[in-house]
Specification:
The structure holds three protein chains of three kinds. Chain A has one domain: Rossmann fold (3-Layer(aba) Sandwich). Chain A is about 30% helix and about 20% strand. Chain A contains seven helices and twelve strands. Chain A has a six-stranded parallel sheet, sandwiched between helices. Chain A is globular, with a radius of gyration of 21 Å. The termini of chain A are far apart. By secondary structure, chain B is of the alpha/beta class. Chain B has 22 helices and ten strands. In chain B, the strands form two sheets. Chain B has a six-stranded parallel sheet with strand order 1-10-7-4-2-3, with helices on both faces. Chain B starts with a helix and ends with a helix. By secondary structure, chain C is an alpha/beta fold. Chain C has two domains: about 120 residues, Rossmann fold; about 120 residues, Rossmann fold. Chain C is about 50% helix and about 15% strand. The radius of gyration of chain C is 17 Å and the shape is globular. The chains are: A alpha/beta, B alpha/beta, C alpha/beta. Chains in contact: A-B, B-C. The interface between A and B is large, with 76 and 102 residues.
Chain lengths: ~210, ~475, ~240
Amino acid sequence: MRRDDILRDVRSALRRTAGQPARDVPAARLRLQPADAESRIRQFCAAVENLAGKAHRAASCAEACAYASKLLAGGTAVASNAPFLNTCGITSLPGVRTGRFEEAQLRSLCAVADLGITSADYAIAETGTLVVLSSAEEARMISLLPPVHLAILPSGRILTGLDELFALLPHPAEKTSSMVLITGPSRTADIEMTLIRKVHGPGEVHVVIVES
Amino acid sequence: MAMAEDLESRFRKTLADSGLQAAVYAGTGLLMQKRQAVVNPDVLPDYEELRDHARAIKEHALANLDYYLEQFEENVRAHGGKVVWCRDGDDVALFFADLAREKNARLLVKSKSMTTEEINLNERLEHHGLEVVETDLGEFIVQLAKARPYHIVVPAMNMTRYDISELFQRTLGVGPETVPENQTQIARAVLREKFLAADIGVSGANFLVADSGAVVMVTNEGNGRMSTTLPKVHVAIAGIEKIIPRAQDLPAFLKLLGRSATGQALTVYTSFLSGPRRPGEVDGPEEFYVVLLDNGRTRLLADESKRESLYCLRCGACLNHCPVYRKIGGHNYPWVYSGPIGSVIGPLYRGLERDPWLPFASSLCGACAEVCPVKIHLPKLLLELRRDITDLKSRRGKGWQERIGFRAWAWVMGHPRIYEMLGKMGSFVLRPLASGRWLRRVPFVLNVGPLRAWLSERDLPPLPKQSFRELWRRRAQGRENHATR
Amino acid sequence: MSKRVSLFVTCIVDQLFPEIGMATVEVLERLGYTVDFPADQVCCGQPAFNAGYRREAAEVACRCLEVLRNDEFVVVPSGSCASMITHHFEELFAGNPKLLAETRRLTPRLWEFSKFLLEVAQVEDVGARYDGVATFHDSCHGLRTLKIKEGPRRLLAHVKGLTLREMDAAEECCGFGGTFSVKFAGISGAISRTKIESILRTGAGTVVGVDASCLLQIRGALSRSDLPVTTTHLAQVLASR
């Protein structure tokens, strides 16, 4: 059995025996930097803008809806079933398709939608990153297939850095099959080192932070 | 150890190609700059600490690799996935052949993976009648061109927009298009069809997280997400050395990888994937396999002094900073891994006899070790490989001319009077040829060996009339005379 | 502390650039040191070590230890030779307790020239005068092994008449690399020419460095391109009046 052969070779290379536990495990290094809400929001928005994303601070759900409508501008959107989107009234905006779809149907919708709307479980201020866990409410492809991605989340979900994320979520695998950290629009520099956006993922990322 | 004629002529060709030289120098130069901007102490004050920590984690993970591999497998299975242990490319090909048959699969989409290049996966799969499409833009281009990736991170660094336009016309049947943004949209459209139709998505993995049974992918384009979300089956292929113990170890690595590779604090997409879709989840693969590949890693693991070369994160920083890579580029390296890391792991994976010149093609400047996020002592490893190769040659009865040369050299260096005499002789012969200026040519009979090689590229200094020790003696004599007067 | 120092002049300086050796002596004497030159010295063994011939390197390195067996500081006008002794002798003699002990007695006493001036003699201004525009080449071993970067620049800052202009590729390798320069001459030459382009962009009349092997490579390449820019060892600049 390959498995046994390979493990045997690994053990003999390391002079270890089967069943031996790991020796001298170094502690994980997580440095938490305290920061008040206002500075997190500011830092997050600045970081998003820095990546050619768009960040908008909304004082209310109504404002968030206005932003979404404006962005939609008569096109079609697919929104996830994230409870926050529902609470905010996003899912009832004209042009927004939402609901419990089968995968195949969701694919067809996303393939033609102009805009994909999701929430985010967390955001990371230092890097302008959205953290989206796949779930029954949050399908993966909504933030991936349409050419524009809009994420709407409450300001309280903004963390300072990666360290805080993994301190809060030491075992993402227990929660989801897919946690994706989204930091700006899809990009490449593969052709003559030229920076180009909108490769396979969305070419535009908008984030609305609802503060209330 | 004479370099093979055709190797030398290949180098000469590359060095004479001014367009290529400019592209590689500029490409690597840009990556160097981008990295510098985000690792300097003002921006990342704990950069050095992070390097030490990341190295310590890798050191620990590899020193206890069996434990973590088993833990990883346990957790993959707990989340509904399967681990496939493979010794080499043959095992991997067999696995895919069986899987494809079982699933009636015909089309595979692939996101970037150097590990799959190692085993020529695409070729093997095509041999089994499968269509494999590279979806990373650079790899897509390279695949169409039927070439090898030029650089670990920027596969088509050597190609211009005109090369790409010509390539797309020839292989995709589109009209001429030289604007990179438009070329990208062509690829986006072609590849989107493939993503949607593919039966199996194949990815690499930047990290395998033991306590989560998770595969972490660090990408920018979105093809990694596409390949691992749309097809029903996801197969992640990774060398066994990609293991890290915990999800909580990730922040340190993520802070180093993007910055070292492309100057990004985080790449656009960091995916943490553990298994097929969970009950209730709407999309994502229905089946999840992680192929753990040995392919020589267990042998390397056993060599304690060389084990650290397995810590490599494949960031490409060493390539970007290497004066040799920046001149000869990726295609002059014999295997898929180029630059300083390639010069170390190539011979270690494939055998020292295969490309015995490779570890010597370095000026040992140390820029690579300086920028390696996990502090691999690349120059030290190169020196050890040089020793191993010369020892091997000795045992095989090869390279005795050079060995005799160095034995003679050592003998001379141990006999100061002889050394001095030889020095005087050399000066006697060469000084008149220089007539006080730097020497450009020597007579035919002298134009051999190292002297010839030196003069092929630069001049020699006019040898002094007196060596330092002679001057010293005279000076001391003069002072003595002066003192006794 | 004794004001006697030993000079380990290095084979390249001895045979090709004796003026660098003399300049080193001059500077040290000006600072009040008496310089000894152990006459049996030849080489540190680096060429063999780098080429993979450790046995031969060890033989030569062993003689080096013998020759420098005294109580004095040893000054070396070369970053690569100094780092060979301080950083690689231990590797060479691993497994030989006697030679290891000897090495450990030598390495704390052995100093690359610019570091000696700054850290032992503790001077920055040696009263030098050198009129002209210069640029500084950071030799790889000096820079990365011995951390020689700011030191020479501080010393040069006090040289009257000297204008120092930094080249953008100051820290890039010159392409020498010992036997690399002849085994892979084409690549070595190409690397040197990139270095030269950077030098020319400064408009400097001379390139200053702490390693004669780099200066050999750079000057050789400058000369081949018929360029008038010269190379000058740090010691020569500091010895100028």
